[in-house]
Amino acid sequence: MSTPTKYLLQESQMPKFWYNIQADLPQPLPPVLHPGTMQPIGPDDLAPLFPMSLIEQEVTTEREVEIPEPVREVFRLWRPAPLYRAHRLEKVLGTPAKIFYKYEGVSPAGSHKPNSAIPQAFYNAQAGVKRLTTETGAGQWGSSLAMAGQLFGLDVTIYQVRVSYDQKPYRRALMETYGARCVASPSNETEYGRRVLAEHPNHPGSLGIAISEAVEIAAQRDDTKYALGSVLNHVLLHQTIIGLEAMEQMHMADAWPDVLVGCTGGGSNFAGLAFPFIGHGLRGGAKPRIVAVEPAACPSLTRGKYAYDFGDTAHLTPLTKMHTLGSTFTPPGFHAGGLRYHGMAPLVSHVKELGLLEAVAYTQNQCFEAGVTFARAEGIVPAPEANHAVRGAIEEALRCKREGKAETILFNLSGHGHFDMGSYQKYFAGELADQSYDEKELAQALSGLPSVPA
Ligand SMILES: Cc1ncc(COP(=O)(O)O)c(C=O)c1O
Predict the structure, then answer these.
(1) Ligand 1 mean position to 414 CA, how many Å?
(2) Last-in-domain residue among 167, 194, 227
(3) For the modification N6-(pyridoxal phosphate)lysine, which residues carry it (predicted)?
(4) Of 31, 118, 262, 331, whose CA is between 20 and 30 Å from 73?
């Protein structure tokens, strides 16, 4: 009998709890600091931006957090998500490795982002919030929150990084189809946006600036809160449904990963897949190698400093300890817009400092090349962000070939690229430049890191 290609769980097998890695870490996460007092912040400091239920999830050290039934009910539209064995890719690469991928592109918005957008909208609606503001890069998060807002009766305003807004007009149409308003950032709608535009009228935007705009608006109104698509502990918590399902599916396949691979922008899809496996290892189970893949043009994990920094460019957020390129750093306008963030999730950064994960960086052409190889073997066209994970997985498979090892590789295919075909066209036309960041700008951004007493 041939080995299966897809491993599918029943709706009844969908996890009922998210997994919190904070319960299993050998050292606790460094505290979040108030930039004025440099003292750890309390729940009240975050209350203007988030409902208390999400603030509680941000700080909890409980191992399991229950997924509310109304959230699970929406998740049933596409979850559990399939796990695939990449038989054809293995053959094309001629590798003895077994390659598995968890496919998150089956969600209505096309990526893993609804895994957190749905619970965030649910908890905000439950707290009586009427309106959400957010940032988006490529538009995957924006369209996910737009859909979630519609399902739970919330108005959603999205500040989309200008370069992605111009590159991907159909993502905006999708956000509008779900009933949200999408504004190019920097915009004239906020004080901070106007300040940036006054200095640089053609500014390409960055996630740090878009976050500042969304936070500025949310902080002004009692009925409005802010939602973040990555980085924060509660977002990573929500994404662990990916890894929890994948563990069940690996059991079905009678296999277990030796290597796990994910792409990292703010760290949420990567942590979503990896944290349940890392936790299993910390509790005495098998310890796979964990590989985070980031863009060479925005390499926070491989080139950033592990230091306290702001999460946004206008410095409206608290200080978190993370791998950062500096909050004023503007990455070049490459096509994986969802990976253009100056910082890395504090939890992913901390886990790296504990020596529990490795990080590598690839250029966008290296990643598109891998994405095309994958599409031609497996049929699915990955999002440019997900191409980084594909590249990482292919590198591991080729290493196995060189070393004659039949290892098991599991990677997260975080989204499809159906709205990103313009960047594929550019790749085929040879017009995709491997822009590197400006070393001087990086040095300047890093020299401006806030000084925090030891
Ligand atoms: C398909 C896809 N993968 C990955 C990312 C990166 O985000 P994160 O690191 O939070 O998973 C994004 C962000 O927009 C995305 O759209």
Answers:
(1) 7
(2) 227
(3) 113
(4) 262
Write the burial class of residue 293 (CB in 10 Å: 0-12 exposed, 13-18 middle, 19+ buried): buried
In a shared domain, residues 106 and 117: no
Query: In this predicted model, what pLDDT tens digit does every residue of 155-174 receive, in sequence order?
Result: 999 999 999 999 889 999 99
Q: What percent of the chain has pLDDT over 90?
A: 93
CA distance 295 to 382: 15
Q: How many A from CA of 89 to the centre of ligand 1?
A: 23
> What's the predicted TM-score (pTM) here?
0.97
Q: How confident is the model at residue 337 (pLDDT cuts 50, 70, 90)?
A: confident
Going by the DSSP 8-state scheme, the letter that residue 145 receives in this structure is H
Is there a contact between 271 and 345 (Cβ–Cβ < 8 Å)?
A: yes
Domain around 314: 6-13+67-110+239-440
Can you tell me which atom of ligand 1 is nearest the CA of 136? 14
169 and 43 together in one domain: yes
Choosing from 187, 204, 227, the residue where a domain stops is: 227
Q: How confident is the model at residue 334 (pLDDT cuts 50, 70, 90)?
A: confident
181-185 and 224-227 strand pairing? unpaired
